[in-house]
Amino acid sequence: MRIIGLDVGVKRIGIAISDPMGWTAQGHSVLTRGRLTNDLDYLAGLCKEYEIERVVVGFPRNMNGTVGPKGEEIKEFGSMLANHLSLPLDYWDERLSTVEAQRILLQGNVSRRKRKEVIDKLAAVNILQGYLDRLANK
What we know:
Elements: E1 2-8, E2 12-18, E3 25-32, H1 36-49, E4 52-59, H2 69-85, E5 89-93, H3 97-107, H4 112-136
Parallel strand pairs: 1-4, 4-5
Antiparallel strand pairs: 1-2, 2-3
Helix pairs in contact: 1-2, 3-4
């Protein structure tokens, strides 16, 4: 079962896709946000192309576990996406996923310009891999 993982931001959406067995997450791309309908259609096309069966969206919580305005925006986006795709959608706590991605890129000596290009994709990989690991340990 292939699963798509998304790190949804205001300007970009990082995209990761699992292998067919649902064991590992691989970075796919970064979508520069445009009109909502265009973004939803693009994601629908990816889901069809890769035969995606489930969507995981990173869910931003405050460090104390509460849900803030950004979390409410993600819930709204997730609801629209689930309706558009007619696929099950889960949320995954994304606290520190971008921080972890940044740390990995800094350790790899990746230039600031290159980091900006891939940070969202790597954050999506972290989100999806965390979700896949939880499924494997159930």
